[in-house]
Structure formats: C-alpha cells, structure tokens
C-alpha cells in the first residue's frame, strides 16, 4: 500500500477509496469512524495512530476534516484539534516517513466574506488570488491548515497541493429559503454554473494533484465545475441570472420547465478553475452542459460515483426540519 486517504468514511474519502480499488491501487483508509473503506480507526490528531498508518506510504490525500455543518455542534477547540493539529501531525509524520506527495482538501469556504459583494456590485469573480476573509471557525481553521501545508512544502520540501473544493455534498441546502423554493436536484443543478462540482471530478483533481505535486512543489487550486460565464457577465448575474443562462443555453428554459425547475434569480459569485485546468491538466466532465444533456436524455446528471457514495450526512443525530443546525 502506498496511498493513505484520511477521512475514508466520509463523502470524498469513500469516493477516493472506491476509485483506487477500481483502479487496482492498494490504498489505506484512516478515519475516526469504522467503515468498509477504513483500515485504521483513530484520530488524525493522535500521533501514534498516524505514525502506524503512515508506514510505507508514498502519497497522502488528507480529506478528513470538521466541516461547516459542524460549526453549530462543535467547539472552536474541536475545529483546531482536527483541522489544524490533525493536519500538522500528518505533515510531520509524512516528512518523517519520506512521503513523496501530500494533497490537502481545503474548501472555497476559506474565501468567506470575500464572496459577498455589495448589493449593487457585480458578482465576485473568484480566483486563487482573492484574499480569504474567513467568517467562521471552519474557514479560519482551513486557512490555518493551508498555511501549514505551504510551510512544509517550502521548509521541509514536502511536495504539497492544496485543493479548494466547491460544493459536492448531495444533502439539501442548509438555507431554509433555498430548501423551500427548490428541490435539491434543482438547486444543485443551478450551482453547477458557479459553485459546485461532481464528486467524480473532485476525485480526478486529487489524483492529478498527487501525480503533479513533485513537479509543482506547492500549489493552491480552486476545484469547481467549469463556469460558462465570462467576466463581462458579472454585472448582469446580480439582477438577471436567468437571462444570462438562457442566452448561453437556449435549450435550458424548456428542459427546466419540463421538470418544473427554476433558476436562481441572482448569482453573487463565480468560482474560476482556470489555474487547475492549466497546471494540473484537470478536465471536469460533469458541468452545466452535461446536466442539461442528461435532462434531455431523461438520465441522472450525477456521476455513477456520486450515486454509489450517496448521502452520508455529517452527524449521528437526525435534526428536525434541516439537514443540520446552522450557527
């Protein structure tokens, strides 16, 4: 075994483990929760656990994390213990074990308040050059962990890639207004234009990052489905997003109407993946065009991998009226 996947019981961890198994790669899964894809059960913040699991590894894909859904149910210290200390322990043990590439799963939530333009401003055009302004402990802890990754790449020469992934969870939106107005498939189809990626494309990005890490040294990339929008569209997206979408995709209105779907009236941000396309050679397949083609064919627009992994949730407890509590 030469690949260690942390968070192997989670959405992305399971997707990675499934993919490696299908490819004949003998990956090792590490998670605090037992699962069919977890070989080492324990916390990433426990050095003994990490050291045992790291033995013989040449690649680490670090997907384990406390997520935004945990903000209302976990303390700041919990986030620091898992997202910061856990990442530090993994980095230190990776260096000691002679790991050749380290891939860290981060999030576009690191951008935080930088994603919300003023009312009359155009939608935000979000590239890797946008300065993060975290607005909760989740974003703050992931920014800190990113900093550790960059430090280890530069000081300890550990080839490291940070992937800021956009939404790929299948659960309903935490925003009650979105849940009330749009069924989950409708909302997630809309998001493929600007802030979502299919988990199969996310997995591909991680595999490419692991392969390219040694040549790059350190890199930070936004991983989101390729947007059809241009910077010239940003002003119109704030007040007439459907008009922009219908201009770019003339078949969209009829396909949406057939399903009883609607588009969001406004869009406030657009994630731009150009750097990942250029430097990683990443080619996401499950974009808005693919979604429309699937609607026309009467098929599920999600990848087979997304359907296999399914919805996993974030808590053992089931919350009434919402997928998880919001802080």
From TrEMBL:
This is NAD(P)-dependent oxidoreductase. It comes from Taklimakanibacter albus.
